[in-house]
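4.2 Preliminary Data

To establish feasibility before requesting continued support, the project team ran the inverse folding procedure on a target of 330 residues. The structure was first converted into the token representation described in Section 3, and no sequence information of any kind was made available to the design step. The complete token record follows.
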């Protein structure tokens, strides 16, 4: 299976490297100097020190990248996804499987990336548009540490082919049909990871983090099911699995944002210092808008939003959560 991965950040490069162990892969990068470095065997901007497989080649030409491929993997941040997909549109055949790695929601439309794909490509086969998601920290996977993920796509036969394209002894891939649930879980957990980072940055302990993650699972599931996701998805790799990894790990960009906010740095300073996108910063507003639209309470996301957008201190957010009206666990 000849494959193209669109986006040469840390996760796009990692997924391209996984796939390139079994088949030829072209990785699209925006910048010529980055593409040249990748063709030299390393991505110094995002994965310095990791050697890339010989089957991986980089290009800055979108048409060249997707020419003759049998699958396209999108690794573009949510705010740039629609534009890149529009640039690709005339080069993509209607039956080509498209897999998104993007864990975000488009702010203006409140759409998931699979929905954006099908808006830009209205004649494309919707059963072949899906998502790869799970507790996948790029550097650990590049180190060969055991990890697992899930590919969600309506056409399970195609999902099975993609599953085999990525599987190896250190990377286990599962499949399911719940694109809505998997995409929603992947986007919402980034917001919860900012909250977890705030807790760590305030010096709070494991009891606090355990309570936060548990209530985050409830919030994520409540909103995700209302939007059409299946309950089991939120208890799996796309839900609980990804949430735990992102909330617990200092490698998580969203977690780091929360830590730095709690230490008193401004959001502008934090973003300026980060080389990579923290999707939760933008996704929080979309999650709040989605919750309001469908009438679902999102108390943790609301407090993250107060800190990100209204200048509230993380300690205020913790107090607001702890002094909410008493209720039954649900």
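Position-by-position output of the design step:
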């Amino acid at each position: 299976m000849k494959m193209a991965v669109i986006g040469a950040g840390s996760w796009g490069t990692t997924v391209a490297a996984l796939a390139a162990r079994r088949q030829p892969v072209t990785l699209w990068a925006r910048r010529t100097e980055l593409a040249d470095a990748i063709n030299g065997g390393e991505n110094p901007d995002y994965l310095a020190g990791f050697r890339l497989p010989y089957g991986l080649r980089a290009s800055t030409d979108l048409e060249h990248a997707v020419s003759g491929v049998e699958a396209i993997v999108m690794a573009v941040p949510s705010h740039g996804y629609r534009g890149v997909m529009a640039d690709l549109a005339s080069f993509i055949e209607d039956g080509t499987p498209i897999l998104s790695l993007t864990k975000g929601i488009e702010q203006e439309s409140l759409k998931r990336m699979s929905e954006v794909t099908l808006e830009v490509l209205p004649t494309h086969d919707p059963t072949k548009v899906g998502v790869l998601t799970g507790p996948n920290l790029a550097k650990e996977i590049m180190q060969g540490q055991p990890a697992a993920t899930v590919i969600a796509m309506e056409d399970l036969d195609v999902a099975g082919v993609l599953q085999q394209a990525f599987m190896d002894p250190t990377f286990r891939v599962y499949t399911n049909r719940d694109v809505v649930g998997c995409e929603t879980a992947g986007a919402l957990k980034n917001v919860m990871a900012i909250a977890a980072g705030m807790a760590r940055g305030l010096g709070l302990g494991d009891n606090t983090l355990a309570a936060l993650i548990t209530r985050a699972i409830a919030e994520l599931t409540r909103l995700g099911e209302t939007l059409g996701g299946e309950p089991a998805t939120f208890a799996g790799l796309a839900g609980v699995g990804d949430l735990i990894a992102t909330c617990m790990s200092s490698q998580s960009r969203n977690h780091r944002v929360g830590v730095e906010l709690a230490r008193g740095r401004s959001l502008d300073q934090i973003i300026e210092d980060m080389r990579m996108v923290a999707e939760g910063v933008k996704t929080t507003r979309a999650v709040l808008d989605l919750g309001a639209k469908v009438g679902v309470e999102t108390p943790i996301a609301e407090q993250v939003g107060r800190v990100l957008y209204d200048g509230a201190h993380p300690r205020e957010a913790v107090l607001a959560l702890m002094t909410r009206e008493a209720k039954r666990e649900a």
